Amino acid sequence: xxxxxxxxxxxxxxxxxxxxxxxxxxxxxxxxxxxxxxxxxxxxxxxxxxxxxxxxxxxxxxxxxxxxxxxxxxxxxxxxxxxxxxxxxxxxxxxxxxxxxxxxxxxxxxxxxxxxxxxxxxxxxxxxxxxxxxxxxxxxxxxxxxxxxxxxxxxxxxxxxxxxxxxxxxxxxxxxxxxxxxxxxxxxxxxxxxxxxxxxxxxxxxxxxxxxxxxxxxxxxxxxxxxxxxxxxxxxxxxxxxxx
Length: 244
Ligand SMILES: [Zn+2]
Prior knowledge:
By secondary structure, this protein is α/β, with parallel strands linked by helices. The protein folds into 2 domains: 2-89, Zincin-like (2-Layer Sandwich); 93-243, no CATH class. The chain contains 10 helices and 4 strands, in the order βαβββααααααααα. The protein has helices at 14-30, 65-69, 73-89, 96-105, 113-136, 142-156, 163-182, 191-203, 208-217, 224-243, and strands spanning 2-7, 39-44, 50-54, 59-64. A 4-stranded mixed beta sheet has the order 1-2-4-3. The longest helix is centred in the middle third of the chain and has 24 residues, at 113-136. The structure holds zinc ion. Zinc ion binds next to α3 and α5.
């Protein structure tokens, strides 16, 4: 339940966010998901669309002023509530106890740590979206397709000379396409594959096919041990891509 909403960016939108939150909450309830902890919302001037932070007794939802002004605010809220639900349920992808095991057990080259961090955030996104897709994807999934297609296009404009940064973007492409595969919204002939493979080629490696398959096939409810095994696979895929 949304207990407060504050506009810190000074551009308005509290009523819009409140209405969107309530619509998302109702849709989740129809699907059998209800948050236990209260949520306070803040509209803030940040470069990303939004974020959330979970404490033992409450959640904070951050919505960017840009997201409020876009047509995507309900999709963003659905996604962030997906993270909150996973945190409350103690899913391995959202569990501090499991994070500690990951830090101990998953080995990655030092230079790849930031890229792996991004790739791990997308693992969390997959699990948030397993809950959020039915809320925001649209009856035919078209909305989700358009969203992730724009994501891949945007990544293409961000390619740099830094191999590791590019590997982080390749993971992001793998997540975007893998999500569409996971939810049955993309064919093998789709032009997004060409876009993402071209990104890899220009960056000098190959990653998107293995990464997309990884994200598409993450098990829905792994044990902590199985989850850590998945992350070791992810580390291996990224290490391999970075050295080919
Ligand atoms: Zn997320």
